[in-house]
Write a structure and sequence with these properties.
698 residues; nine-stranded antiparallel β-sheet; alpha+beta
Length: 698
């Protein structure tokens, strides 16, 4: 046998390295899901196994870096087309940040949450927060948002009456035509929807596949949207039960709510308040029996001018059972709950701070009132505890609470401790636009309503519309590069436990209906008229969006009536009633089918995501775990496209079969299964115009 000198051996090794195949970057992968982080939500002091995937026999060495410390990963497993590298890391109390370095011959690169890179990017490092957990039930849960007044009238005896009271511009109004669109200023117009109506439609929600209801506010309030609470301790009897009625409505045009004795009795009589809370208890019990959770809306940044703590309308001051409100009495026990500019203006002090200057929305003063601070913490605990047993909170304008960033974060830290101590499985989900990173560190919110990393990129890509229908940019339609960049960047703002339960929506009560956005009409109902929201809509594009909603990481959330074809410009037009007498049955069936696919497969609930291709009007991505591999193809063009898509990077073998579970087109949708061969890692298929197709490995 020939013996080689050290020099010759080095030259031979160098030659072999240089002749290695090109690094298959598409095969590189890791994330924070359960296949690549074991356990996925480790405790402080626990040892976690971190994994990295690479194409088989394609990588020489993988290092995990955390700060200045480097860990060598061992190849511990090979399956199908991939090698898996692992390392065990003992965790402490602090966050653990990390990224990967991959070497093949003379080639090397880094891998972080954004993907493959040639440079170190600390802002995109993976992160583990030891001890941070989000509720397992919420990860990938199918949620359904209900604005109660517009859903279903199950009990006409609790309907708001004409001129029952005066609010802002006019007396309350009872709308008798259920299908009539809301007027441009409709805050005190009521259609009669109530909790009994929701209870009667629980079977429908169960058949649709709903796993959680998110209610817009339910507490006592003079508006139909109820973001102006007047009592956090009770469900509004107009949504609940009125068992003790009486008193008089106002004369038409009268603005003096001191005379609104019917309203006063309805919303202050203990019998009505307790009966309404009892109805909520019953509703939650029946929802839970169907496997449906219940999330409440917590509006804690501000209350309403009707609130018993303020009592600007003098609803409560005539009742000896209630303390004097801060608006009326300088010595009110609630005076410090608000900030008054003029300390000498009592009685009837109008100089209190309003949220964004609105005098109907007094801002709550947590900075100066320990009593208020503790009261709201107790409210947070109360409604997730027996006998109410709600399953969590959605927090309205949560970043605005308080008068300083320091107090805001301290309050939400305390709120988390209070709520989780009462119900560890309760979710804390905040409304937030933009970067919520400072609240999503594991000690405050569980997650947020996902605008930046879902609603906005999906809307721009599929429709070119701004989410309020306030602008249209045709260059954004099909702009896959912008879509991918936005998604990759903004998804890195979430810890993985937060991302998997983020509230992904196409529509909600603050923005135009997605179906209306497909018509590319810019404006609002007051300028264009309500009919314009329904003209020229594109249901095939809407179906594409629904497929993306049900196959993207997060909790897919329907806004009531979207599944039935409800249209509408931004609020209040987006708050139309559910069309029970004439729903779009095909859309309802489509939602049922797509929801069923989502619910039946864990990979679509908690699996990994990998972009496979982004071209003009075309997206391909995979959702997968080690047991299931899905591929989703989106053709947003108005022409059919034949694609030969490389899909092996979604965890599939080079040669196998996929089953098509669902496909949409301009004509509708089909769930007839068709098998496709995968050869050399590629799926070849003809996609019709405006198509979304879902495939799963057989």
């Amino acid at each position: 046998m020939k013996e080689y000198s050290a020099y010759e051996m080095n030259r031979k090794l160098q030659y072999m390295m240089e002749m290695r195949p090109v690094l298959k970057k598409r095969g590189l992968f890791s994330d924070g899901t359960a296949d690549y982080r074991i356990p996925a939500e480790p405790e402080a002091g626990e040892t976690v196994i971190l994994r990295f995937r690479a194409a088989i026999n394609n990588v020489d060495i993988v290092w995990l870096w955390s700060g200045e410390k480097r860990y060598t990963m061992r190849k511990t497993e090979t399956e199908d087309e991939f090698d898996y590298f692992s390392v065990q890391i003992p965790l402490g109390e602090e966050k653990f940040y990390y990224y990967f370095e991959v070497c093949t011959g003379r080639l090397h690169c880094y891998y972080d949450r954004y993907g493959v890179t040639t440079e170190i990017r600390p802002q995109y490092a993976f992160c583990i927060q030891p001890g941070f957990h989000t509720p397992d039930w919420a990860k990938g849960a199918v949620m359904y948002q209900i604005l109660v007044d517009r859903f279903y009238n199950g009990d006409p005896t609790n309907d708001v009456e004409d001129d029952e009271y005066f609010y802002i511009r006019h007396g309350s109004r009872k709308i008798t035509e259920w299908n009539q669109p809301p007027s441009s200023f409709s805050v005190a117009e009521f259609y009669g929807g109530d909790l009994e109506g929701v209870r009667k439609k629980l079977d429908y929600l169960q058949e649709l596949g709903v796993e959680a209801i998110y209610f817009n506010p339910l507490f006592v309030s003079p508006s139909n949207h109820k973001y102006d609470s007047q009592d956090y301790d009770y469900i509004d009897p107009h949504y609940g039960k009125i068992v003790s009625d009486g008193g008089e409505c106002l004369a038409h045009g009268d603005r003096d709510n001191r005379k609104a004795t019917k309203y006063q009795k309805r919303v202050t009589d203990p019998a009505n308040l307790e009966a309404s809370n009892q109805l909520f208890i019953t509703l939650v019990e029946e929802a839970h029996a169907r496997g449906i959770r219940v999330i409440l809306d917590g509006v804690f940044n501000h209350c309403g001018s009707f609130h018993k703590w303020m009592d600007r309308e003098e609803i409560y001051c005539q009742n000896a059972a209630y303390n004097k409100g801060a608006y009326i009495d300088r010595d009110s026990c609630y005076r410090d709950y608000f900030r008054f500019q003029d300390q000498q203006a009592w009685p009837y002090n109008t100089t209190y701070e309003g949220w964004w200057g609105h005098d109907t929305l007094p801002k709550l003063n947590y900075d100066d009132s320990k009593e208020l601070y503790q009261y709201i913490l107790d409210i947070g605990k109360k409604w997730v505890s027996p006998p109410y047993n709600a399953d969590g909170w959605r927090l309205d304008v949560a970043a605005d609470l308080g008068h300083s960033e320091e107090l805001n974060h301290k309050f939400w830290q305390d709120f988390r401790r209070a709520v989780k101590s009462a119900n560890p499985d309760a979710i804390i989900l905040a409304e937030h636009y933009g970067d919520a990173t400072s609240w999503l560190q594991g000690d405050q919110w569980d997650t947020i309503m996902n605008y930046s990393a879902f609603m906005e990129p999906v809307t721009w890509f599929l429709t070119g519309m701004e989410k309020h229908s306030d602008s249209f940019d045709p260059t954004q339609i099909g702009n896959a590069s912008n879509f991918e960049g936005a998604m990759q960047h903004y998804m890195t703002n979430f810890l993985t436990p937060s991302l998997l339960c983020s509230m992904n929506q196409l529509s909600n009560h603050d923005h135009s209906r997605f179906l209306t956005r497909t018509n590319h009409r810019v404006g609002r109902a007051e300028q264009l008229g309500t009919e314009a929201a329904e003209i020229g809509i594109n249901k095939p594009v809407f179906r594409e969006a629904v497929v993306m909603l049900m196959t993207w990481p997060g909790a897919p959330t329907l806004y009531y009536g979207d599944e039935a074809g409800v249209c509408g410009f931004t609020d209040p037009d987006n708050r139309r009633t559910y069309p029970w007498d004439d729903p779009d049955q095909e859309l309802v069936r489509f939602h049922q089918e797509m929801i069923a696919i989502h619910k039946e497969h864990q990979a679509l609930r908690t699996g990994s995501l990998k972009m496979l291709a982004t071209e003009h009007q075309y997206l391909a991505y995979g959702r997968f775990n080690r047991e299931e591999q899905f591929v989703v193809l989106i053709n947003n063009d108005d022409r059919p496209h034949r694609v030969k898509q490389s899909i092996w990077a979604a965890g599939l073998p080079q040669n196998c079969e996929c089953n098509r579970l669902l496909i949409t087109s301009d004509e509708g949708f089909s769930t007839v299964p068709i098998r496709y061969p995968i050869r050399e890692g590629k799926l070849e298929v003809l996609l019709p115009a405006h198509c979304a197709a879902v495939f799963v490995r057989v």
